[in-house]
Design goal:
The chain is mainly alpha-helical and about 110 residues long. The protein has one domain (about 1-105). About 80% of the residues lie in helices and about 0% in strands. The protein has helices at about 1-15, 25-70, 80-105.
């Protein structure tokens, strides 16, 4: 008898705990949104990898070009050589700072469990 009352109580609670969905295709919309977010995450990972590759290539190309400019011209252009190096270093530092900021901004947030 006690077990039957418990079953009835559970059945009563279950009937009253039904939640109406806001619209009929709620679950389909949520699954579509999850799929879209997964696709965005996958493409953003590819983009980050490409960005790192091109950043590295740009740094190497810049170093080679800077050396060529510094050692390739005659001694009369010393001021220009120093200016080119200074601009190159400042540009490099700006790129590093923006890459760091992008990396920090794109970290996924941690869910509290």
């Amino acid at each position: 008898m006690n077990a039957e009352k418990q079953k009835d109580a559970v059945a009563h609670m279950m009937r009253h705990s039904l939640v109406e969905l806001p619209f009929s295709d709620f679950d389909q919309r949520m699954m579509m949104q999850i799929r879209r977010e997964a696709e965005v995450m996958a493409t953003s990972k590819k983009d980050k990898n490409r960005a790192a590759l091109f950043f590295t290539l740009g740094c190497l190309f810049g170093a080679i070009l800077s050396n060529w400019l510094v050692f390739g011209f005659s001694a009369e252009l010393n001021n220009v050589k120093i200016l080119v190096q200074a601009v190159g270093v400042l540009t490099f530092l700006l790129f590093v700072r923006s890459a760091y900021n992008l990396l920090m901004a794109s970290k996924p947030f941690e869910m509290n469990s």
